[in-house]
Automatic annotation (TrEMBL):
Organism domain of life: Bacteria
Family: Belongs to the ROK (NagC/XylR) family.
Pfam families with a match to the protein in the record: ROK
SUPFAM superfamilies linked to this entry: Actin-like ATPase domain
InterPro entries named in the record: ATPase_NBD, ROK, ROK_cs
Gene3D superfamilies membership: 3.30.420.40
Protein's UniProt name: ROK family protein
Region forming the signal peptide: none
């Protein structure tokens, strides 16, 4: 019987599940939105419904999960959720194992994404890969020789919490999707006649999604926002280079869809802030797996766990 695996992404705004074969080729994708006001219980029910549907049609060998928040990866237990109530202290691993009867592996979403990109995305062929996700928050993951690096619980590689000054301002405060939303909202109200203002209109959420069109049209306000954001990002990544000196840095998350509008100035800033002895800097790439990065990484996670278990048994 062919092994089949399920990779799950549990985020603050969406759920993604991918069913794959034993070689991790995608068989089917499932997606559900996390509605504003949804509790953790309601999200778990959505997951349970899909999992039951999958198990009615196929035999699962294991499940991998990428969760949007700090957790104890060995126990599979959430430490805290900053976005949705009801997850704090919840053991995802035990819950899914009881629900399905199959092995489960759990990581935070940035670590899962890092593993996915290292093994099946832009990090293929590199020994050390640092991944940074630029979404509603900012997180990071480090993969060395195709294995995730772990520090002491409850986490490591939290690049979003690096300070960029002595007032407590962090990389996440400046470079997350929500941070860029705030920059756009503020800018279009002080520059009411520009292209970005025309594109954003009266919107008060998700303003960052209008940046790419404005950048393509050469809007000065959009270019200024991008320059400032990329400069701070490059400064934060210089600490990553000085500490870990990875072979490649990969940008993921919603802001990564800006592509070279973000990558190129971030790379230039990184070069400026990196000490001469560490030049040339590691290349910066955009995540190749795009929105599938986390669930594919979760698939790699459970595949690795089961493979190791089989090797030990032999």
């Amino acid at each position: 019987m062919e092994n089949k695996y399920l990779g799950i992404e549990i985020g603050g705004t969406k759920l993604q599940l991918i069913l794959a074969d034993q070689d991790l080729n995608i068989i089917q994708k499932y997606r559900a939105w996390v509605e504003k006001g949804d509790s953790a219980h309601e999200i778990r029910q959505k997951i349970a419904n899909v999992v039951k549907e999958v198990q009615q049609e196929t035999d699962l060998s294991g499940i991998g999960v990428g969760f949007g928040g700090p957790l104890d990866w060995e126990k599979g237990q959430v430490i805290v959720s900053h976005q949705i109530e009801g997850w704090n202290g919840f053991n995802i691993k035990e819950w899914l194992q009881e629900l399905t009867g199959v092995p489960v592996a759990v990581e935070n979403d940035a670590n899962a994404a890092a593993l996915g990109e290292a093994r099946r995305g832009a990090g293929q062929g590199y020994r050390s890969v640092f991944y940074i996700t630029l979404g509603s928050g900012v997180g990071g993951g480090l993969v060395i020789d195709n294995q995730l690096f772990h520090g002491a619980n409850p986490g490591e590689a939290e690049v979003g919490h690096l300070l960029v000054d002595r007032t407590g301002l962090t990389v996440e405060d400046c470079c997350s999707g929500w941070a860029v939303d705030r920059k756009v909202w503020k800018a279009v109200r002080t520059e009411p006649t520009g292209i970005l203002r025309q594109l954003a209109g009266p919107n008060r959420s998700g303003e960052a999604r209008f940046l790419k069109d404005a950048l393509e049209q050469g809007d000065k306000t959009a270019l200024a926002i991008m320059k400032e954001t990329a400069d701070t990002l490059g400064f934060g990544l210089s600490h990553v280079v000085h500490l870990f000196h990875p072979d490649i840095i990969i940008l993921g998350g919603g802001l990564s869809f800006l592509g070279d509008f973000l990558r190129v100035p971030a790379e230039e800033a990184l070069r400026t802030y990196t000490m001469k002895a560490f030049l040339p800097i590691p290349p910066i790439a955009i995540a190749q797996l795009a929105e599938n990065t986390v669930p594919i990484g979760a698939l790699e996670l459970i595949h690795q766990q089961i493979s190791k278990t089989k090797a030990v048994a032999i």
